[in-house]
Amino acid sequence: MPDVEQTSSAPASTTPGKGRPTPKRRDAEGKRRGPVGPAPMTAKEARARRKAVKGSKADRKAAAAERRAAVQDRRARMLAGEDKYLLPRDQGPVRAYVRDLVDARRNLVGLFMPMALVLIMSMFVAPGLQTIVTLAMLVMMVFMIIEGFVLGKIVNNRVIERFPDTTDTGFKLGWYAFVRASQIRKMRAPKPRVGPGDAV
């Protein structure tokens, strides 16, 4: 009989298995970091470890004072109007210009909060004035809405004249101006850079 050359059905090259599962990432990182120390046996030992990690009391006080100073510095820069430290809604030359426009105006809407507080307090003092107070509040709200529309129109027109290429216009910009105008002047942030009646 002629010799029949036997051929293997398995492929010529086969990648052998690793024989073990692939380790999880956290396990591999844990091995690279080294062994973890034993858990504390007593509460006293646990406190000692926490104290060692936190540092001395003087170090903690110094770090806390440094953090407070950094926060105060950031707030002062924000109130001064430095663009880097402002909230995203306040950043940019367009928003700074709008703030100046609002701060240079004498806005009736800025009187709403103080007057509303006075009216509400008077209602508690004299309950019989409830109808009059409610009517006065409605009248104030109507004036606020009218002035809000007027202010939004003025601000948008001035912004388009000063920044013709800006896309920051419309209702969003008008609302930004209205919200700032409704705040008491001393409580506005960033602080006003111009006085009432100043040219902007």
Task: Describe the protein.
Residues 1-16 have a biased composition (Polar residues). It comes from Nocardia rhizosphaerae. This is DUF3043 domain-containing protein. The chain crosses the membrane at residues 108-126, 132-152. InterPro entries: DUF3043. By secondary structure, the protein is mainly α. It is 57% helix and 0% strand. It has seven helices and no strands. The chain has helices at residues 25-33, 43-54, 57-80, 93-103, 112-125, 130-162, 171-182. Helix 4 (93-103) packs across helix 7 (171-182), helix 5 runs antiparallel to helix 6 and helix 6 (130-162) crosses helix 7 (171-182). The longest helix is centred in the C-terminal third of the chain and has 33 residues, at 130-162. It is elongated. It starts with 24 loop residues before the first helix and ends in an 18-residue tail after the last helix. Mean pLDDT is 80; it is low at 1-12.
